Amino acid sequence: MSSSEVLSRAGNINTRFEVTLQEEDLPGNPGTFIAFDLTNNLGSTIEVKKDDETVVALVATVKNPPGTDGILEHTDAAGILDIEGTYYIRGIGRLTTGSVFKGSWEKRLIGK
């Protein structure tokens, strides 16, 4: 999805958020990105930054266990997309090893 497409509409409920965490394949392939392995996932989240700069952390689940593809998802039953405008989303992977991996913010538009 390009950043100019509308993700959803303000007021919608049950919007599904999905993010893929990727890390640089080092040391062998700088500039090449691979999925961040979520096999040892422990409390990963998806953050949503609203147009008013409010940041909401959503509890995320691994879409395809064990998580080697780096995909997290969350279905928003509360309806956090309450205002139209520009939103940003990112995944944050937390592992049992104590490692925390923050993905990059991705721009999404929320329409009327």
CATH class categorisation: Mainly Beta
Number of strands: 11
Structural class: mainly beta
Number of domains: 1
Instruction: Indicate the radius of gyration in whole angstroms.
Output: 15 Å
Q: What share of residues are in beta strands?
A: over 45%
The total count of helices amounts to 0
Give the full name of the CATH homologous superfamily: Immunoglobulins
Architecture per CATH nomenclature, i.e. the level-2 architecture: Sandwich
State the helicity in percent bands. under 10%
Question: H/E element string?
Answer: EEEEEEEEEEE
Mean pLDDT, to the nearest integer, reads 89
* Poorly predicted regions: none
Give the biggest sheet.
6 strands, mixed
Instruction: Assign the CATH topology.
Output: Immunoglobulin-like
- Tell me the overall shape: globular
Gap between N and C termini, in Å?
A: 19 Å
